[in-house]
Amino acid sequence: MKTTTRWRPDTCGCTIDQTWDDGTLVASTMVIACAAHFGVTNAPACVLEENQHKNRSLNALEDAGIIVQAWRIEGAERKLTVEVSVEQAAPAAAILASTGVHARVIGKPMGG
Length: 112
Ligand SMILES: [Zn+2]
Hints:
Blueprint: E1 2-7, E2 15-21, E3 24-32, H1 43-63, E4 70-74, E5 79-85, H2 86-98, E6 103-108
Bound molecules: zinc ion (ZN).
């Protein structure tokens, strides 16, 4: 049976209607395109990939005991930036590099 769910990713301002057939995503339709994805070819897939990339990155860090204080995606490249403590910056960068994630790590002084 086909069902449609409305998805608003936490990585940008897009709104996408996703049509599912027995748990398989069969169609995605842009309802609202944010500034970053307006006019982008295959925008729903780009938004999904961007969101999954963020999830994979944060999950990999969490699994390693890294505390992510903040994250954002910015710039024309839509690059992920994660903020961690100064002490965890190097291990966090190593973990992301080893998982093939394109992300920038910023170490923030505690209490700063
Ligand atoms: Zn978007």
